[in-house]
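Practice problem: predict the structure.
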Amino acid sequence: MKKIIGLFAFMFLLNGCDDGDLIIETIDFADVTATKCEINGLVYKIKENEVLIIEIPEDENAFIGTVTPFGEPRQFTIGGDNKVIYRSYSGTIENENVCSTIPPSSPNVTEEWVATSGVIQITTTPILVPNTTLTSGNATKIKGYNHAIVFKNVTFDKPNGEQFFETYVFGSYAKDLLSSETLPFAFDDEVEKCTSGNTVYNTSGSEALVLNLDPTFFPAASGTQTALISATNKVTYTLYNAGGLTSANFCTTTAPTTPAASQIWNAKDGVTATSGIIEVVTTTLGSQFQHTIHLKKVTFNRNGSEFYLGDDYIYGSFIQ
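Answer:
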């Protein structure tokens, strides 16, 4: 009798531990590189016969080249057009199984989890690499942007119930800049000065590097003059959507509306003897003076992205 009672008690304990539909499982793509479909914009990770997919409409600007403030990722609520899907297949899969308009007939999907709630968080940072085309020393350029993706409080609906993750780290998706987004910095060393004021500019194709300086610059005497980049000594790099730049783009009170600027980068304010230094070396040239401008330890900023122009960038010279 005691044995029978003990058996019933054991069975009761087993039933008491059953959570019904909840069976703890995990999916691990930590060591897999994320890829983006060219056709449908899906971001995904493939691991042999498994895939984890994120779908966010392109017009939501989830993966744009704008740095997110510290501790403030972009957030997208899962549901509707914002989807997270896990699938396993009957065999090894390729990109075509995810990105094709008409997916291949095999392998077959053997299991699918669909996220029904939660939030997609995306933290964006620039990918900096050495700028070997500049000779200014230690210069950097932005190669692209890294998007670190995390799911928060995500619930998956799966064949045998629901699966909840308080935090699931999808990983990073790195996106290189398009050729139209890169900054050429293909300037020569001959700059122009507006006939009035103290604006100096250098152009190359669709790019311009402009200095708006204090009136005390460019004295009619030999010597070296330095100042820090500031509200009165501004340095701006602009990439336009077309070429054909003239003095009217920089020397008139109302600049032409075309071509339009696609990117505007502002040099950060200088720090004494440390960074953001404008140096002008003036020498006599007959009855005139030649002014050679150096930009030393200058960093440019745009929407939180930064790149370093180098230890000593020779902006160029002009004669007056």
